[in-house]
Amino acid sequence: MISPMASKDSIAALSSGRLPAGIAVIRVSGPMTRFVVETIAGPVKDRFTNLRALRAADGSTIDHGLVLFFPGPGSFTGEDVAEFQVHGGRAVAAKMLETITSFEGVRHAEPGEFTRRAFLNGRLDLVETEALADLVNAETEAQRRFAVRNAEGAQSELYSSWRRRLIHARAMIEAEIDFADEEDVPGSVSEAVWSDVSAMIGEIERHIEGFKAAEIIRDGFEVVILGAPNAGKSSLFNALARREAAIVTDEPGTTRDLLEVVMDLNGLKVRLVDTAGLREAPGKVESIGIERARAKAEGADLVLLLEDMADPVSVGNVPGGIPLLRVGTKSDIAGAGAGTYDLAISSRDGSGLDRLLTEIGDRATAAVGEAGDVLPSRLRHVELLREATDFLRAALSGQGQELRAEELRLAAERLGRIVGAVDVEDLLYVIFSQFCIGK
Ligand SMILES: Nc1nc2c(ncn2[C@@H]2O[C@H](COP(=O)(O)OP(=O)(O)OP(=O)(O)O)[C@@H](O)[C@H]2O)c(=O)[nH]1
Ligand SMILES: [Mg+2]
Description:
It comes from Mesorhizobium plurifarium. Its cofactor is K(+). It is a single chain. Residues about 1-5 have low confidence and may be disordered. A hairpin with a 5-residue loop joins strand 3 (about 50-55) and strand 4 (about 60-70). This protein has helices spanning about 35-40, 90-100, 115-120, 125-135, 140-150, 155-180, 190-210, 210-220, 235-240, 285-300, 330-335, 355-370, 380-395, 400-420, 425-430, and strands at about 10-15, 20-30, 50-55, 60-70, 80-90, 105-110, 220-225, 260-265, 270-275, 300-310, 325-330, 345. The radius of gyration is 29 Å and the shape is flat. The strands form 2 sheets. A 6-stranded mixed β-sheet has the order 3-4-5-2-1-6, with helices on one face. A 6-stranded mixed β-sheet has the order 8-9-7-10-11-12, with helices on both faces. Helix 13 (about 380-395) packs antiparallel against helix 14 (about 400-420). It folds into 3 domains: about 5-125, 2-Layer Sandwich (Gyrase A, domain 2), CATH 3.30.1360.120; about 130-205 and about 380-430, tRNA modification GTPase MnmE domain 2 (Four Helix Bundle (Hemerythrin (Met), subunit A), Up-down Bundle), CATH 1.20.120; about 215-370, Rossmann fold (3-Layer(aba) Sandwich), CATH 3.40.50. By secondary structure, it is an alpha/beta fold.
């Protein structure tokens, strides 16, 4: 099991963002917190906002601000916690932190240390902790929705419910082993157990499939622009990015490397990638760029294949199996165009760009699926879920009830590792290092 915090240090940090700002929030946690608060601010009422003059060690006023005191264990970290809300000047925050950390037993917090204490004190499980990191880092509406649902425990509850079912299944099988000689244990009990285990394998596998959607929410839906040199790729890239992010010239082979801009479409993160035009026998730099373009397209969520409708040039093979939109370019000079295109655009006069954005947004939305789904949010979860289903399959096909019960135990243990209900010491560093100081 998880060992309690070795040190009884109290910790302090600036928990709000970059200074200067309107206000700064300084957080303190640990056994010294009440003493620190009462020394700096005088007596305060627990769980209420207290407007106080805040005093340095020499009695001079640092600032006037709000003080909140949350006695443990009903606080974020489970320890005594205080927040000082002061004016957000750099010198104010610095003086506050200097004053607080000059108390014996109080030091600056390490990154993620408040959250780590919350986890170690049982205030959050591991999945909720990860979701909190996602919430702090969320940039798009989809990322926020996804993170807040998991921070509220939706994902943890799913894994815990599977684990409870397995623990129950194992208890039933073990009861059957113990009472095997007695006649009144119905054989159908174990049948029901095994059919539930088999149903659970299906549920877990469906859940694992959702990881792709979770990755798109977190990392973005990747759209790669491909086409022959001079097809108008960089012009489209700039038009959608609304800035001159890529160089545009009438010289074929202008773009040689991958360029990326991030957009927010329907509240989803979309990464748009410009690439080198595909053609044969170019120079050394350009051919590396072309290789990169093809490799990038192989992993894309959507490829926009651009063709100059005024001067169509075939680019040969495009990666198979990747959703593709054929986009005819330069409609301002080519008219309707000859070839077959899903969409016709002009980056010069802007026509067709709204339709293209709508199409990309719709495809991104479809790729992340139903908003209500609970998805695995880390590769760590997927790996443990796969191990769990391997054990479940072994349990289903295994010989001998004892061995099969043991496979059930191992599967339940893997599920327990996801939420941190069983030994996870080795993981803690990785997870808490995702946080900034003050969280
Ligand atoms: N009339 C017209 N010209 C365009 C349009 N889009 C691009 N062009 C012109 O086509 C030429 C090539 O445009 P780029 O955007 O650099 O083409 P690219 O596909 O990025 O080319 P490479 O980087 O060399 O592969 C430039 O001279 C652009 O001004 C358009 O919508 N209409
Ligand atoms: Mg280009």
